[in-house]
Specification:
The chain has 443 residues and is mainly alpha-helical. It is built from 22 helices and no strands.
Amino acid sequence: MLSFLPKVVHRRPRTTALVLALLVLSAMSVGVYAYALHQWHAAQAAVKAARLDEAQRSLDCCLLLWPRSIPVHLLAARTARLRGDFEGAEAHLNRCLKLNQGASEAIQLEFLLLRVQGGEEDEVAGELLSLYVDQNSPESPVILETLAHAYMQNLRYGPAYACLSRWAEMAPDSAEPLRWRGWILERLSNREEAIKEYKRALDLDPDLVPVRLRLAEVYLERKDPLAALPHLERLSRQFPDRPDVMARLGQCRFLQGETEEARRLLEAAVRQLPNDSEVLIHLADVEKQENRLDKAEEWLRRALQVDPTDAEAKFRLAGVLQAQGASEEARTMLARSEKDRAMLIRIGQTLRQDGENPSLDPAVLTEIGVVFLNSNERLGRYWLHRALKRDPGYSPAHQALAEYYDRQGDVEKATVHRRQVKPGQKPHSPAVPASAGVRNQSN
């Protein structure tokens, strides 16, 4: 049937070569397009699953092949925003503006979400809720998730929980809002309800590893190793070399009285998690159990090098020092532990009250800010600026910021705030520990 081809090739070699080249190029184009389409779908799935590095790699390929695609630039902007690369996100959005010759609704939404993640949640929340969420926009879950995480990042539990609850209503098959409601409920001292939320999240998504691990940790904190064990054994089968799983299983074995197995797991974990306070403290427990008080002291002092304000490490070190006969140092350490613990409780209560009934008192917000300035500078500045939003002339907040910027060597900003301090007004300087952080602040 194809016996004529050799004749055609012989008579018209140039035409034949051109046709063959076009066929090859056409096949290559189809292959390249199919590959790009595969990468596009992979990027969408990766962003949805929060595998952002993977999404970035796929999007880099898509942008190479489709540099003028607005949807690709929009997803690249979202990916950059979620990774904390705000400059990259803004660059992609500005490219969208040029390609679209103006702002579409999708572009405008991404700009608003970028402002939320950049710390302007209060300024744009109303617009996002009224124009999108209240109108049942398909992007409502993304909007509510972004707002919730912005509030949670700043420990504003009330508005965060409200956003998560609306998200759960709109996406009843999603485990994520339940996961984060559990996180908030823990910080509102409602651990029983938090456990219920974690269990509901696992019913929807049994492979949600952070939730399963956190649920196991909650049981360990309640000294209930039997409830924690099934979760930890499942995680250990899935991730036998994962250090945080080994560490928590080690804690569980210690509570079960299996000291040698606990030691093996904790020592394996600490090689990869040398700054994990929980691991260091529980290694000290193992040593104390076997009456190796000098080794227990060593682990606890190491934990305090990691976090000099760890009230639990101080409390346990006081006990070890007392057992070694160092009574005076033990009393000093115990007093520091009690002081730090009292301040943690006080700040926790203040945050919970602010979550339930947002405070209008700049003194309360300033107190929280002063505490956090010593351990989490971003949070400290955030709460002090919230105080100044309530009362722009509130001297104690200006005084605290002036002293902070002095320590940072930023004379210009320190001077701006010091000029706002009213003469003769007593500065706000509560006695605080160097940190008011809460362990397990994130899953």
